[in-house]
Write a structure and sequence with these properties.
This protein is α/β, with parallel strands linked by helices. It has 14 helices and 17 strands. α5 (109-113) links the parallel β2 and β3 (117-121).
């Protein structure tokens, strides 16, 4: 008589469940470390929920160590960080703020809401970020005409840092402040430094789709202690120290909650791993697709190492046989989320009358660009499904 163990070996093995090929593949979903639940529970147990106490300060200290900035303020969002940056620089009506046109509207919207006038500059094909040569030319002309901007916003795009090692000295020569919108740049480097380092102020985001997420939240960083102290006061409704509520100006409720800070603290130690995973995802897309006619990928700037927060490619419809939006719709039909690259701000109706310098590079990127699923939790089977769908579209 067979033992139970012997009988078990004679039974046919149960097949492993096949991967669900119909499962949706998202663009950049949150990737949890497994430590977030315990971190949130510890925050709840401590009684700290509001934007106060030791947990937000611990997150600020960890982010300062990661980025190399001397001072960091945790806030409610990346947009809140940019709003505070414009406020502490006293940007207001009559001031001009320059920004690359190839970016999300939050890079300039808070300055416009404060009364400033935007001017859009084109980006460099080699990096998709603000073109330093174009900036230098425009600064020279603006100085001659007496219309220098109050600030220049350099923007990190899809995990690629702007050339701050060139932009910051250029602006310093004219007394113009530089803000780095590094909402998409955490984990990337430029000239051997962290994203945003070299700017007077840098803004970061921990939105749900970012490489490190707290489900929300942001941070403002600087090596200037006074600027961060001013921003901290504005983020707390601009309350003047007094036994009663005393206000000499208006502020915001921009504090970072202890719960979000706890999630961020759990995530931040995994930043290097997240960057490595996203760079590997980008490399697999290159290997699997760049032999197709009409396909190219976002270049890596010579001055830095991109985090590849999102994998972005360009599609030449004449070579490929289909334009970027056609590919997006093909992927959507397969349950795969993709997204066009940023629509240039000078093409947005709200900014139709704003001055711009150039714009043809940004327009060409928008016409041909597509962001592919890039979450650091994306498995190879799911990524191969994306690659197969694009190759099938090419054959079609």
């Amino acid at each position: 008589m067979l033992s139970p163990a012997q009988a078990g070996r004679l039974l046919p093995k149960r097949p492993r469940p096949a991967p669900d090929l119909a499962a949706p593949i998202l663009l950049s979903p949150p990737h949890l470390t497994g430590r977030e639940k315990a971190a949130v529970e510890a925050s709840l147990a401590s009684g700290w929920l509001a934007p106060a106490g030791p947990i937000p300060r611990a997150f600020e200290a960890a982010l300062a160590k990661e980025t190399g900035f001397a001072h960091v303020l945790g806030v409610a969002s990346g947009t809140a960080a940019l709003t505070l940056a414009f406020r502490v620089l006293e940007i207001g009506p009559g001031d001009e703020v320059w920004v690359p046109g190839f970016t999300f509207i939050a890079s300039i919207a808070p300055a416009v809401q404060l009364g400033a006038r935007p001017r859009f500059l084109d980006v460099c094909p080699a990096s998709w970020t603000l073109d330093p040569a174009l900036l230098a030319m425009e600064l020279r002309q603006a100085a001659r005409q007496g219309r220098l901007p109050k600030a220049v916003v350099a923007v990190d795009i899809y995990g690629q840092c702007a050339a701050l090692h060139e932009i910051a000295p250029l602006c310093a020569g004219y007394g113009v402040a530089v803000i780095s919108d590094s909402a998409e740049g955490l984990g990337a480097t430029q000239a051997g430094l962290s994203a945003g380092k070299g700017a007077l102020l840098a803004a970061f985001s921990f939105n749900g789709n970012k490489i490190i997420t707290a489900g929300g939240g942001g941070a403002l960083a600087s090596d200037d202690a006074l600027l961060i102290a001013r921003a901290r006061a504005l983020a707390d409704q601009a309350k003047t120290p007094a036994p009663h509520y005393q206000h000499e100006t208006t502020g915001y409720s921009f504090g970072l909650s202890s719960l979000l800070a706890a999630v961020g603290l759990a995530q931040l130690p995994k930043l290097a791993d997240r960057v490595a995973r996203r760079r590997a995802i980008f490399a697999r897309y290159q290997e699997g697709l760049e032999d197709l006619p009409g396909i190219s990928f976002m270049p890596e700037a010579a001055w830095g190492r991109a985090s590849r927060w999102l994998s972005a490619m360009l599609i030449d419809p004449e070579g490929f046989g289909m334009d970027a939006d056609g590919v997006r719709r093909v992927l959507a039909a397969e349950g795969i989320e993709s997204r066009p690259v940023w629509k240039p701000l000078h093409m947005q109706p709200v900014f139709c009358d704003a001055p711009r310098i150039g714009g043809s590079v940004a327009e060409a990127l928008f016409a041909r660009g597509l962001c592919l699923p890039s979450g650091s939790g994306l498995g190879q089977d799911a990524q191969h499904r994306v690659i197969r769908a694009i190759r099938a579209a090419a054959r079609g």
